[in-house]
Write a structure and sequence with these properties.
The chain has about 60 residues and is mainly α. The protein contains two helices and no strands.
């Protein structure tokens, strides 16, 4: 946003707040997804056969 002829950029505090909240949500979602993938890999590595994996617990 351009605040006028001075060339200064102005962002309202609420825009900064919601931008930071969006980034926090994005990064925490990436962490959760990574942990889910690691859990899935650990379960598949520990299972003797693919048919014994409880797939409903991974959803």
């Amino acid at each position: 946003m351009n605040a006028g002829g001075g060339g200064k950029e102005f962002q309202h505090d609420s825009v900064i707040l919601y931008t930071n909240l969006m980034y926090m949500y994005y990064h925490s979602s990436r962490v959760v997804l990574s942990h889910h993938e690691v859990l899935h890999l650990a379960i598949t590595a520990a299972a003797p056969s693919f048919s014994s994996i409880p797939s409903r617990d991974l959803a």
